[in-house]
Specification:
3 copies of one chain form a homotrimer.
Chain A lengths: L1 H6 L2 H19 L2 E2 L4 E2 L4 E3 L6 E3 L4 E2 L4 E3 L1 E2 L4 E2 L2 E3 L4 E2 L4 E2 L4 E2 L4 E2 L4 E2 L8 E3 L4 E4 L15 H6 L3
Parallel strand pairs in A: 1-4, 2-5, 3-6, 4-9, 5-10, 6-11, 9-12, 10-13, 11-14, 13-15
Antiparallel strand pairs in A: 7-8, 15-16
């Protein structure tokens, strides 16, 4: 199976992700918890040191964009991502947005406003579609089994 | 004209698309009808064999994403695309979604729910914006002339 | 700082952008004002000569798509972008859309309909979220200071 062969690349991927995390921190002042999992195709634009922070056990999926530069005010408005969040593929997080802990951002969502803890947001503009969820590591919904870990190769 | 010169690449593109279709089928268990037209920049993530199927005379445009892996349940929920559909550029099809025959997905749409036959869906989240349409091959609306075929180089 | 080192690449970027603008005009019949700023990762599909035009002092950000080909009618419906507009990252402009002068398109927006002057549109489908704005060059909101220029390296 292709999944098995991709898993053989896991050590390389983890090495590259760790390298990138250190580079983002050192050169861009973007702080990403070492326990977070960051897709190599995600894009972080902090604008200035401290522009973006990502909490523990959070997963940022492929083709996501986090951009802290605000054209309207000509300033950087920091983006804060909590712990145990899941930022779905292709989604965008706008300047000044704070995601509390245990937030799931659906694939393709464009988030303009803060999101309270234990919520799922979806759509463009993103709206809360579910509240009081219970999640584990990487924003896995309670009841999601080990398959999720394997599917995302975490 | 540029369009003319791009058309000179058509045999190469058809060859690469056919190669990719076979690879997706053999390695990923994704079934794509040979009469379907699949952009090379579309992305199919089946998760497991049988995770995605695409019907005859359907067009999947550039930068689309079909992802059958469901984080919430930790399982794969198959994606089914019918015949004579048009999946617009940059759109996303979520796990478990079935598109019936002759469905048009507008560019940039994010589809979370099943779509009934002969409908147009648009937006994020995608909603039905038109029903009872009549389409031909590749989801071309009735009345669209040969230009469409030429524009998309089919 | 990384921003400083990126700015050292500015002459190269301006040279490539100018080259691309000329190529788009000569080969594709797409007219872009020389004072406009066009991201190298933006994508212009004119369909035929005259399919797209972009006005003076307008900024088209990264990963945007402007596609003037209309599947429904099988024809090209030209896209017109006015002056002093800002087309946000990851947004899409659909066939037949005219943006008047001084329009801001939020990141990730998908624009299906014409937008009146001095408006901000956001969402998918895009809707007017603010009117009667005052902007300067590149759609900078009145009050945005020089930082914006620096952030976008204009």
């Amino acid at each position: 199976m292709a999944i098995a062969s991709l898993n053989q690349l896991r050590p390389l991927r983890l090495f590259l992700t760790g390298l990138r995390r250190r580079w983002l921190e050192w050169r861009m002042g973007i702080s990403i918890d070492p326990s977070a999992s960051i897709s190599l195709s995600s894009r972080f634009i902090g604008g200035q040191p401290g522009g973006i922070s990502v909490g523990a056990d959070t997963l940022v999926a492929f083709k996501t964009l986090l951009d802290a530069r605000d054209l309207a005010t000509g300033t950087v408005r920091p983006i804060r991502i909590g712990q145990r969040c899941f930022i779905g593929g292709g989604s965008m997080i706008m300047p000044g947005v704070t995601l509390a802990d245990e937030v799931i951002v659906a694939a393709g969502a464009v988030v303009f406003h803060d999101v309270p803890a234990r919520s799922i947001v979806a759509g463009n503009p993103a709206r809360v579609v579910r509240s009081d969820i219970k999640v584990g590591r990487f924003g896995r919904l309670d009841g999601a089994n080990e398959n999720t870990r394997r599917m995302y190769k975490l």
